[in-house]
Amino acid sequence: MSTVKEAVDVEVPVHTAYNQWTQFEEFPHFMEGVEEVRQLDERHNHWTTQVSGVKREFDTEIVDQLPDERITWRTTTGDTNQKGTVRFQRLDDTHTRVELVMDVDPTGVAEKTGDMLGVIDRRVKGDMQRFKEYIEKRGGESGAWRGRIRPGE
């Protein structure tokens, strides 16, 4: 399993960055290789991705969500095995640090080779930079979900 870490400072208030991140169906706008995310309910999402010609579908479960602080998830079904946390740190009234930490267990020859070559790290770094551009260009969030999900619920 590989651990990927990346942080980006965005020029929006913490609630704006957090609110936008809760809009999972918007992820294809800034995440490379993500074709679709369907939010099934407050805790579950279905993902369709295509990376290096390999199409994958999998489900994720949010296991911890605290508004303006963090969202933690894990995969529950499919060929992809990952878990991670995105944290939101208020820097000042108009700036936020968004930090993503993911544990990814590549499956298949293409994914394992890509991981060894640093493809996953570069993709996450690019996704975070594209999130920065996306939210700063919008100037505000496209929606929000401010509910609390506690581990073990």
Fill in the keyword field for this structure:
3 helices; Alpha-D-Glucose-1,6-Bisphosphate, Chain A, domain 4; alpha+beta; single chain; ORF3; 153 residues; 7-stranded antiparallel beta sheet
What does the model show?
- The structure is a single chain.
- By secondary structure, this protein is of the alpha+beta class.
- It has one domain (2-138): START domain (Alpha-D-Glucose-1,6-Bisphosphate, Chain A, domain 4, 2-Layer Sandwich).
- The chain contains three helices and seven strands.
- It has helices at residues 14-21, 108-116, 119-138, and strands at 2-10, 34-39, 44-51, 54-66, 70-78, 81-92, 95-105.
- A seven-stranded antiparallel β-sheet has the order 1-7-6-5-4-3-2.
- A hairpin with a 2-residue loop joins strand 6 and strand 7.
- The longest helix has 20 residues, at 119-138.
- The radius of gyration is 15 Å and the shape is globular.
- Residues 10-131 form the Coenzyme Q-binding protein COQ10 START domain.
- It comes from Streptomyces lividans TK24.
- This is Coenzyme Q-binding protein COQ10 START domain-containing protein.
Anisotropy-based shape: globular
Instruction: Write down the domain tally.
Output: 1
Mean pLDDT: 92
The residue ranges in which pLDDT falls below 50 over 5 or more consecutive positions are none
Main sheet: strands, sense, barrel: 7 strands, antiparallel
Task: Report the count of strand segments.
Answer: 7
What's the architecture, going by CATH?
A: 2-Layer Sandwich
CATH H-level homologous superfamily name: START domain
Strand order of the largest sheet: 1-7-6-5-4-3-2
> If you compute it from the alpha carbons, what radius of gyration comes out, rounded to the nearest whole angstrom?
15 Å
Q: What share of residues are in beta strands? A: 35-45%
Question: Which class of secondary structure composition applies to the elements?
Answer: alpha+beta
Calculate the terminal CA-CA distance, rounded to whole Å.
27 Å
Question: Helicity level, as a percent range?
Answer: 10-25%
Order of helices and strands: EHEEEEEEHH
CATH topology: Alpha-D-Glucose-1,6-Bisphosphate, Chain A, domain 4
At the first level of CATH, the class is: Alpha Beta
Give me the number of helical elements. Answer: 3
Pfam family, one: Polyketide_cyc
Protein name: Coenzyme Q-binding protein COQ10 START domain-containing protein
InterPro entries: COQ10_START (IPR005031), ORF3 (IPR047137), START-like_dom_sf (IPR023393)
